[in-house]
Amino acid sequence: TQVAPGAVHVPGWLAADSQGELLDACREWARPPAGLRTVRTPGGGTMTARQVCLGRHWYPYGYARTVVDGDGAPVKPFPGWLGELGRRAVLETLGEPPEPYDIALINFYEAEARMGMHRDSDEKSDAPVVSLSLGDTCVFRFGNTGTRTRPYTDVELRSGDLFVFGGPSRLAYHGVPRVYAGTGPPELGLAGRLNITLRVSGL
Ligand code: MD3
Ligand code: FE
């Protein structure tokens, strides 16, 4: 389903077994060193979704090779199989192959976690961002490129959903105002929600 130009939502793109394999990988990546961390914002606040990075470490507002606001460890490598998954996602939705992916940001949302409206502009490539969701259903809010404010399009993202953001949607404001606790597939065995985004750093 095309939500806006370049923004394509594919519900249930990942089969149940693939969701389980991706979750297992996320659990490994979440372990220290360079594991799951709380992101501190420049204003002194903290983000409610916790994060682990592969390839490069994201911090507001840039990328580093080590965990600059955590344990200082080198960032875990970005695996080739994850890049292939991203390439396939873009080929199937937008019909053109992207540049090779080299960064993954994995956000873990507990029931009360949110993500405010923001734009992702720290990548020096205009390649599409690939988003995969696991676990609890959330409300994903898609806004505009020029303003953080309404009008918004709210879309529910469920376990296994793919969302690709390319072209004019790449720099649109977006956020996650709500996670519905206990709505994920029971057989996945995940309390909360995980979102994996694949990006091209251009670095
Ligand atoms: C649109 N993540 O990691 S996924 C993020 O569910 C982020 O964790 C949310 O926003 C999450 O930056 C939303 C959908 C998403 C991800 C990246 C985008 C939408 C995007 C980048 C550009 C435009
Ligand atoms: Fe984002």
TrEMBL record:
Q: Which domain of life is it from?
A: Bacteria
- Pfam families in the cross-refs: 2OG-FeII_Oxy_2
PROSITE patterns in the record: FE2OG_OXY (PS51471)
What are the residue boundaries of the Fe2OG dioxygenase domain, all occurrences included? 100-202
- The organism encoding this protein is Streptomyces longisporus
What InterPro entries does the database record attribute to this sequence? Alkb, AlkB-like, AlkB-like_sf, Oxoglu/Fe-dep_dioxygenase_dom
- Swiss-Prot/TrEMBL keywords: Dioxygenase, Iron, Metal-binding, Oxidoreductase
**Example GO molecular function term?**
dioxygenase activity
Keyword field contains Chloroplast: no
Q: Which cofactor does it need?
A: Fe(2+)
Q: What is this protein called in UniProt?
A: Alpha-ketoglutarate-dependent dioxygenase AlkB
